[in-house]
Amino acid sequence: MARVVLWIGVLAVLGQVFCCTCREKGTCEKDTHCEGVLVCFDGKCITLKERKKILEEREEAAKPKVCRDEDGDGVRAGDGCPPGELLDCNDADNTMAPGKSEVCDGVDNNCDGRVNEGTKGCVQTLFGGATWGNQKEHRLVNPTSVLYHQDGYLLLTDNHHLWKVHLDGAVELLAGSHLSRFQNGSGGEVRFSYPQGLAWATDGNVYVSDMKNNCIRKVTLSGTASSVAGFCSNLTKYAGQFADGQGESARFYGVVDVAVMPDGSLIVVDRINARIRKVTADGTVTTIAGVGSVEVEEGTGQIGFLDGPAQEARFNDPQSVLVDYQGNIYLSESFNCRIRRINPKKGEHGEVSTLCGESDTNLGIGGFVDGVGQRAKFSFPHGMIWDEQGNILIADTGNAVIRRVTKSGAVRTLFGKAGEDKYVDGPIGAARFQTPMDLALGPNGSLFVVDTAANRLRWIVP
Fold it and tell me: Can you give the pTM of this predicted structure?
């Protein structure tokens, strides 16, 4: 028995000395000790990607650390500065350093990550393309419409979202997601399909023109969405429909904007149906102007354009709608390059006239001319708002400018330069817009501009 015990002990000692598979789990001495595509590095089995990252970190850590003041403004910069020290954001430019005043020069003077924020006489980007604050968590894609709330924030639509944007640049998702479908609910549960026009409801919530879902929605300020009028769906089999009626029995095709009448009813721009519709408080939808963008008989008008009695009038690519306190309706008409007006009290069913603008209505060719009435020319105008004097401000998208129209139809260009469709922030006179699509009047006479192709919400502070 003693010999057996002794022999077992000898085998145990020999196993400890000669065992080649007794490494601690997860360790290695060479690549063949690792499974699959893992490699041996520093005694551990890791992926090639992990090894590359470790080597890059070691290489970066081995570089000399810097902490100095190159431009002599009293603030240091570099990766070797003590934790907590305020760093210069550009040590090659002495106009930029923590504590400096922000001025309208196109650079981040105070090193807070923003440029030109709220500076008088300046244009800045409020949302879009930013890498500071929480904006780096969000991406703005093809923004279309904006509203300003007196509490100091904006609502903004893009492809499938309704965003809440604060004046300090903080952004929240109020409702929607990256998915293009239809669904009511709250917050990220909600689904839109290219929402566009917005309007404040009398109860403080917001109406949304859900364009490719072909219906009008309402969203509370807590982000809960519900349906108001039209059959909501982006399925092809439901597209291209037109019907007056109540609730879901009504049909729209490409709703792009909505406005609230003095009596609380809604005016809806039914773009592809080329009609202007009305929605009453009980959800009943009727057509108040337009008979569709179809050819008319010779002598009675041109394709898609005809002023006169509302039920005979013709539109082509209507986009934005405004309503005044008397109930008159103003429309921007993109293809016809005009601003149209509907007087619902004139004649038996209302009358449509042209306030300003003139074009070749067969080809959709306008132009750029300041002037009065038909002497003025636009190029694919879109969003409109009232200014504080009761004039209309218009995003003249094709000309890449912001223009003002008086009630008498006099047109004047305010911001941007026609023909220079590019994104440029900075002093107002030098600022340029790429495709201005919508507008909102802000605090102290400032103006917010949706610059769609630039994927930005811009802020003009006069």
Answer: 0.83
